[in-house]
């Protein structure tokens, strides 16, 4: 089972180091793969502090390797500081930084090129859900990679994260596991039809807490969770790991 801890922009450098030091003291069950995603400012130091068994992940990466791209960090640079994974197309990147499906696809290709396993985030907004566009939106987000770049696809993660369920620090609206089961079935069906030979792991994200994590893990095809806010508190992170280990 995967637990991807996305610290977003919640923790500053010192707080990130402190939490990484706590993680180094956790006893983590062998069936749980913890993957930690600090902000870029703490990435290299946190990567050095984490135990070998913990995955190292960036929250984003740019597709061009080097050059005059102020503010960007390339996949090559992420790899050089020990990253093995990179989140691509998180809804906060799509909505607040206007990333398009085409740009997300370029990032996926660059991640594979540099030997990183991308964690692709897909999900619909509340408006898209309410106007019956969920299926269309998901197909476009997935299709720009799994259809348009079918031949280049390598091992990766697809994290279904309904935008309306993502917390803004507190707890967002709850996605019912029975609703998740229906969407997951569609997503897995489409992806596996496009790239039947490739290892794709499916995750869920959106207001996951120690209290509800097990209900998501019972959903077919869900191999883990991507957690934002709750993963930034030592006690909650530990409780999430304990819940997953049961
Ligand atoms: P959250 O974030 O756990 O704070 O809702 C999840 C996500 O961004 O996927």
Summary?
This protein is an alpha/beta fold and 246 residues long.
Keywords:
246 residues, alpha/beta, binds 2-phosphoglycolic acid, TIM Barrel, 41% helix, globular, eight-stranded parallel barrel, 17% strand
Description of the molecule:
The protein is of the alpha/beta class. It has a single domain, classed as Aldolase class I (TIM Barrel). It is built from 10 helices and 8 strands. The protein has helices at 13-25, 40-49, 75-80, 91-96, 101-113, 126-130, 134-146, 177-194, 213-217, 234-245; strands at 2-6, 33-37, 55-58, 85-88, 117-122, 156-160, 200-205, 222-227. Strands 1-2-3-4-5-6-7-8 form an 8-stranded parallel barrel, surrounded by 5 helices. Strand 3, helix 3 (75-80) and strand 4 (85-88) form a beta-alpha-beta unit. Helix 1 packs parallel to helix 2, helix 5 runs parallel beside helix 7 (134-146) and helix 7 runs parallel beside helix 8 (177-194). The chain starts with a strand and ends with a helix. The mean pLDDT is 96. 2-phosphoglycolic acid binds next to strand 8.
């Amino acid at each position: 089972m995967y637990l991807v801890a996305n610290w977003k922009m919640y923790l500053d450098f010192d707080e990130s180091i402190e939490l990484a030091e706590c993680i180094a003291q956790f006893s983590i069950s062998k069936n749980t793969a913890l993957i930690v995603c600090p902000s870029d400012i703490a990435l290299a130091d946190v990567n050095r502090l984490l135990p070998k068994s913990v995955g190292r992940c960036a929250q984003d990466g740019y597709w061009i390797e080097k050059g005059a791209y102020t503010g960007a960090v390339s996949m090559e640079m992420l790899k050089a500081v020990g990253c093995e994974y990179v989140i691509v197309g998180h809804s906060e990147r799509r909505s607040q930084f206007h990333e398009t499906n085409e740009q997300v696809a370029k990032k996926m290709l660059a991640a594979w090129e540099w030997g990183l396993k991308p964690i692709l985030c897909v999900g619909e907004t509340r408006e898209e859900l309410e106007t019956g566009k969920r299926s269309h939106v998901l197909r476009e987000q997935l299709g720009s990679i799994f259809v348009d770049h079918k031949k280049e696809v390598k091992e990766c993660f697809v994290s279904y994260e309904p935008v309306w369920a993502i917390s803004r620090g507190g707890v967002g609206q709850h996605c019912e596991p029975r609703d998740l089961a229906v969407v997951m079935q569609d997503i897995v069906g489409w992806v596996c039809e496009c790239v039947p030979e490739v290892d794709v792991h499916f995750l869920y994200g959106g207001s996951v807490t120690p209290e509800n994590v097990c209900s998501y893990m019972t959903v077919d095809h869900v191999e883990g969770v991507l957690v934002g806010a709750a993963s930034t508190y030592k006690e909650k992170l530990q409780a999430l790991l304990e819940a997953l280990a049961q």
